[in-house]
Write a structure and sequence with these properties.
CATH class of the largest domain: Alpha Beta
Number of domains: 2
CATH architecture of the largest domain: 4-Layer Sandwich
CATH topology of the largest domain: Glutamine Phosphoribosylpyrophosphate, subunit 1, domain 1
Largest sheet: 7 strands, antiparallel
Number of strands: 23
Shape: elongated
Radius of gyration: 23 Å
Helix content: 25-40%
Distance between the termini: 27 Å
Strand order of the largest sheet: 3-2-4-1-10-9-11
Strand content: 25-35%
Number of helices: 16
């Protein structure tokens, strides 16, 4: 997977009286860690509105919450959590870490958000002209300002009133310390699901793998435009935005979601394996073996090997102990683009014609590294196969992606890209093949980064 594209955030939270909900939320964040690794946080409510406890910080969940004792001491029945990446469109800096905790006339408000408002700049300008003072660069704070301006002690009613002003891709969790509300955009660009905690409780999360981790049972996905309310009475919901044709981000299936998660009734691992099978049918190659780029491309690579009747080999080893950033210590390593996170197994690839399957190619930097790794290990031929279409446009909905002109497929055909990365051949899975592997009608998936046609601007 090209490091130039990343999901932005993961959210989770719930209500469960008599259970260590803050503790459970922490474990759910572990399950969602792949969605954001720069910061993490948890807010806990008493259920009565008597103050919200908050802790957040930089780094992984394990770094922010190294001791579980403080979480076990938080007895509130309500909690929400957040993991995020830091990048310019979301706002960098400590003040942008979530959950946000805001204070207004009717008490405190905790917010956690995944996505991006396409009308965020317009809302920020409007609020600034009305005298608003902003503490962060995030779209999440905009929702807090809009709710405060409603001047309504009922959080449910305030959310219902301001939600129609939000345009874009979002899954919000927010709480006043008494209730927890999950809110999904009208097209369902960003995922959000509801689960049940026994004996009496409910939980919301970006992905169903979080439910498995904490022993919750999946109930259903939150519908586009729906608000789900959790409190001592259980769960209820209401439609706050007119539901449009669903348009879940196609990249959730290709890369973002964990393989053990289910989205729209389809298991992510099985979808990725089918992506590989279709890729083998569309772009076969004379080769001796198939390998995948760990970890997100393993399923697609195994599907390719099965369909092609070729052996699958673990020819790329990932070093899981390299930090999120590192410096190459010598000039030679910098010039050759040596990646300390990945290494080829020479005894497996030496003298072989190798098919390398990756899930996507964005800037092309990872593609160049993969080909160099294989050639340095003695591969006779390197055939690069991508289990998604060429990425030709930047995302408007909160995915960390380069601008269009920085994309390797922007204005280039496949032959030119293959020459750029140094592969003997290159094949992308077609958009039709990608959508077909998911098993949903194409109009129910956001395909904008592959087509340049956006459902909402």
């Amino acid at each position: 997977m090209d490091a130039a594209i990343r999901e932005a955030c993961g959210v989770c939270g719930g209500w469960a009286a008599g259970q260590p909900l803050a503790y459970l939320t922490c474990f759910a964040l572990y399950a969602l860690q792949h969605r954001g690794q720069e910061s993490a946080g948890i807010a806990v409510g008493s259920g009565e509105g008597a103050g919200i406890w908050l802790k957040k910080g930089p780094g992984l969940v394990s770094e922010v919450f190294p001791e579980t004792g403080e979480l076990k001491r938080q007895r509130g029945p309500l909690a929400l959590g957040h993991v995020r990446y830091d990048y310019s469109r979301l706002g960098k800096g400590a003040e942008n870490r979530q959950p946000l905790l805001l204070r207004y006339r009717h008490g405190e408000l905790a917010l956690a958000h995944n996505g991006r408002l396409v009308n965020g700049a317009a809302l920020r300008d409007e609020l600034a002209r009305e005298g608003a003072i902003f503490q962060t660069d995030t779209d999440s704070e905009l929702l807090g300002h809009l709710i405060a301006r409603e001047n309504n002690p009922s959080l449910e009613e305030a959310v219902a009133a301001v939600a129609p002003r939000l345009q874009g891709a979002f899954a919000f969790l927010l709480s006043d310390g008494k209730i927890l509300i999950g809110l999904r955009d009208s097209r369902g660009f960003r995922p959000l699901s509801l689960g049940r905690l026994e004996p009496q409780g409910y939980f919301l999360a970006s992905e169903t793998c979080a439910f498995d981790t904490i022993g919750a049972k999946f109930i259903r996905e939150v519908n586009p435009g729906e608000a789900v309310v959790l409190d001592e009475g259980g769960v209820r919901s209401f439609q706050v935005l007119p539901a449009a044709e669903p348009a879940l981000c196609l990249f959730e299936y290709i890369y973002f979601a964990r393989p053990d998660s289910n989205l729209q009734g389809h298991n992510v691992h099985l979808v990725r394996r089918e992506l590989g099978r279709r890729l083998a049918r569309e772009h076969p190659a004379e080769a001796d073996m198939v390998t995948g780029v760990p970890d997100s491309s393993i399923a697609a690579a195994s599907g390719y090997a099965e369909e092609a009747g070729l052996p699958y080999e673990i020819a790329l080893i990932k070093n899981r102990y390299i930090g999120r950033t590192f410096l190459r210590p010598t000039q030679r390593m910098r010039e050759e683009g040596v990646d300390l996170k990945l290494n080829a197994v020479q005894k497996i690839v030496e003298g072989k014609r190798v098919i390398v399957v990756d899930d996507s190619m964005v800037r092309g930097t990872t593609g160049v590294k993969l080909v160099r790794l294989m050639r340095r290990a003695g591969a006779r031929e390197v055939h690069l196969r991508i289990s998604s279409p060429p990425v030709i446009d930047a995302c408007l909905y909160g995915i960390d992606m380069p601008e269009s002109g920085e994309l390797i497929a922007y204005g280039r055909d496949t032959a030119a890209i293959a020459e750029t990365v140094g592969a003997d051949s290159l094949g992308y899975l077609s958009l039709e093949g990608t959508v077909g592997a998911v098993g949903l009608p194409p109009e129910q998936l956001c395909r904008a980064c592959f087509t340049g046609s956006y459902p909402l601007r």
